[in-house]
Request: fold
Amino acid sequence: MSGQGPQRRLLGSLNGTSPATPHFELAANQTGPRCLEVSIPDGLFLSLGLVSVVENVLVVAAIAKNRNLHSPMYYFIGCLAVSDLLVSVGNVLETAVMLLVAAGTLAAQAAVVQQLDDIIDVLICGSMVSSLCFLGAIAVDRYLSIFYALRYHSIVTL
Reply:
């Protein structure tokens, strides 16, 4: 790894794997069939993240703008969209920083990039937990609306 540039070493340490690892190599303590490593371009992650950001912004805007969508169920969906928006923003930021460092456009110290990566990872993990909580709240809300349909409005408005 000594022949690689500092950016490749930095990216290798951030990703947890060396960029120069062969695709078919097995670890010394593993036995069994070989697994193929699937290489997905970073541009694909960036474009999917941007699409996710746009669609979640549209969901939040639709719920905020349309008065017919101002009910508890849609508030839960809006909160879920905000949580997913934070996950998407975190993924887009992380991928953009990785691409800029790999291209040599962004010259930063390894410690700064590592701290930025840690902050983005905390944002993504926290937002994922929040998304799961809102999915649970939506499930409870749907349960109440189906099994207590006649009393749903009075239960939810409490």
